[in-house]
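Data deposition worksheet. Section B asks for the primary sequence of the deposited chain exactly as it was used as input, without tags or linkers unless they were present during the calculation. Section C holds the resulting structure in token form. Section D is free text for depositor observations; keep each observation to a single sentence. Incomplete worksheets are returned to the depositor.
Section A, Depositor: J.P.
Section B:
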Amino acid sequence: MNEEAKKKILRQIPYGLYVIGVKDGEGHHAFTGSWFSQCSMKPPRVMLGVRHGTHSLEMVKQGKVFSVNWLAKDDKKVLEQFFKPTPSSGNRFGELTYQLFKTGTPVLDKALSFLECEVVSIQEAGDHSIVIGEVVNAEQRADTSPLVMSDTPWHYGG
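Section C:
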């Protein structure tokens, strides 16, 4: 197989960019996600890829809930904050404010829209796990196009 062709082709899959909120007990955390899609209409379910060996995946496994936050195209700096390791202060959110709704996972005040999900199953899939969540809460706050991978110089995958 031509490895460079494979990598280039897989990176051409259209990807959104999201801030994924998680919790375990009273702890809250968030990370950047890009491998996300709807996988069922009835019941409404979505699937999310989360890298193995991460604090984020452990929190998803323990808390069994997650939120998905869509951001505006001009919120790249917000998204970058969730790429980086957690600061030594332990405050992943910095100055960003968030609220807790049905699942108790962080929903950013800046989010254009969000979903809250309860984990239905987790399947190992290579170097990531596929987390399937049932949508239990949703809100659209603005009717504008969200930030997607093609709006940035970044890539993840391949």
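Section D:
The mean pLDDT is 92.
The radius of gyration is 15 Å.
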